[in-house]
Amino acid sequence: MSVQSEELGNTGTLIYPSRIKLPYTWHVGKVGSRFYQEIKDNGKIWGIKCSKCEWVFVPPRETCPRCYCDMSEWVELSDTGTLLTYTVTRYAVPGIQPLEPPFALGIIKLDGASTGLVHLLGEIDLNDISVGLRVKAVFREVREGNYLDIKYFKPVRA
Amino acid sequence: MEKVGIIGVAQTKYQRYNPASHAESAYEVTSKSLEDAGLTIDDIDNTITVCNDFWDGRTISSMTITEATGSHKSPTTNVEGDGTYGALMGLMRLLSGLHEITLVVAQSKISEGIPSVITNAIFDPIYERMLGLDAINSAALQMRSYMSKYGVTEEQCAKVSVKNHKNAKANPYAHLAMDITVEDVLKSRVLADPIKLLDTSPISDGACAIIMARERTAKRKHGKPIWIKGVGHCADAYHLGDRDLAEVDALASAAKRAYKMAGIRSPLKQVHVAEVYDAFSYMELMWMEGLGLCGRGKAGAMVDSGLTEMGGALPINPSGGVLSAHAVQVAGLARIAETVLQLRGEAGDRQVDGASTALAHGIEGACGQGHCVFILGK
User: Is the CB of B137 less than 8 angstroms away from the CB of A87?
Assistant: First the structure.
């Protein structure tokens, strides 16, 4: 396949439009696989707890970044938490965005976790989001074992 | 620490869609930095390139500019990260005692790719990448977190953008030099609230090179070397949710190391000019705090006071900063090159009078995950 080069403005130089396509298979690892399996099979979010500092990490990982030791104590977390920060993306980037803009993103501290989980916010008025909002996970009906098995977090109605 | 001096610097003009190829840009700054140092390529005994495969659209990208940088003639290594880390590696090479003169070359052609698609790839493919995170909306999460925790306002962030774009008018290398008002920034298009278009840095192509030498060689080869007085670097956690995004722990740690090495106890009094990595307006405020120039949450008030403007007690980003020219990876090395010009007294209309100690700062990763701080002096 050949692609026609074009002139760049009136610079007298050419540009060559093309694209890079690179199939790739990522290994989720032992800890991440269990995290996704629990979400997929049971609709539950699990974290992992450090026996030294007692922090609970989500997404879970094998090593405590604070104490640099192994972690093995799994902890079931609430599906509800508090919004630490948020933004509404109002520009389109074809190919990388999970939703049509505008869409909201936030960092949620789930009850029982010590770290934040970055995720989408849904069923929400994009002009009425605030730090401290209580939000609850909404799971997809059909789950595939990936990050978007949590569809988004929605506000908890008082 | 043995003294290492910077004896040559060069930058391209930063612009979107620079018609030069990446190798042509690398050659331009390599040859100009040699000219600035009064050297030929044969004087260079080792080279560090700063290239990133994703931005360059090819793998082992550094190997494609060996001829353009003359580095096929000497030991060469690539640093894939900000240009300040390239300078750090150059410094280490010289301190090893194995080399005398190091050339560091950074180049990037940001306009060739789609920046948000490339910065999306910063994020963990197993987790956050599929959320559509990129450099802009992740920074928006940080800006909101910082404003929410410390009460810093969008107006105070906007003032940084006004100041730096104005400063850029005196910098012939700058990409976006303009007179704008706080209102212009606040009313510019919202990209990812609270980030507006004029809170962001432009898509710039460009290159920068510096030449460093051990003390005796630096003195013999150059009339007025600028000395590296201190350096420090540190990285924070990878996952955004693991960090308190309003905090600047990694930068504070990097700055502490650099200040200790340079014998700086009160940076606000002892540093005369600073060039920091303001990829977004709010970042300049956060980095001021991380650098210990003021207390946490106090940078907005410091900007309000005019202290960081040209003519203030500590001008920050007289060049216009990264807000006025953002060739990713090059930008940190450009901060060093700009401070060298300031200390030489060769910064033209953007000169800070009497500057004898300067700070240059670079970042890498999302939301300033890693920081590298250089203290330079005459």
Answer: yes
Convert the pLDDT of each residue in B203-214 to its tens digit.
999 999 999 999
In which band, very low, low, confident or very high, does the pLDDT at A3 lie, cut at 50, 70 and 90?
low
**Which residue has 């999302």 as its token pair?**
B366
Distance CA B98, CA B313 (A): 41
Q: Are A135 and A155 in contact (CB under 8 A)?
A: yes
Cβ–Cβ under 8 Å, residues B322 and B277: yes
Q: Map tokens 């977390």 to a residue.
A: A77
pLDDT of residue A26: 95
Q: Distance between CA B130 and CA A145 in Å, rounded?
A: 13
Nearest one of B228, B227, B295, B248 to B267, comparing CA atoms: B295
Query: A-chain residues within 8 Å CB-CB of B126?
Result: 26, 28-29, 32, 147
Retrieve residue B187's tokens. 């009313």
Answer whether B87's CB lies under 8 Å from B104's CB.
Answer: yes
* Contact criterion met (CB below 8 Å) for A133 and A110: no
Q: Between chains, do A87 and B127 touch, taking CB under 8 Å as contact?
A: no
The encoded tokens of residue B190 equal 């919202």
Sign for the CA dihedral angle at A125, A128, A131, A136 comes to negative
CA-nearest residue to B135 within chain A is A89
Tokens of A49: 């707890």
What phi, psi does B178 have (nearest 5°)? -165, 155
Backbone angles phi, psi at A2, to 5 degrees: -115, 145
Q: Which residues of B touch A88 (CB under 8 A)?
A: 190, 192-193
DSSP B66-133: TTTTTGGGS-EEEE-S-HHHHHHHHHHHHHTTS-SEEEEEEEEEGGGS-HHHHHHTTS-TTTGGGGT-
From the number of C-beta atoms within 10 Å of its C-beta (0-12, 13-18, 19+), residue A63 rates as middle
Contact A103/B at CB under 8 A: yes
What is the complex's ipTM, to 2 decimals?
0.96
- The pLDDT tens digits for B299-336 are 999 999 999 999 999 999 999 999 999 999 999 999 99
Contacts of A144 (CB under 8 A, 6+ apart): A40
What is the 8-class DSSP label of residue B240?
Answer: G
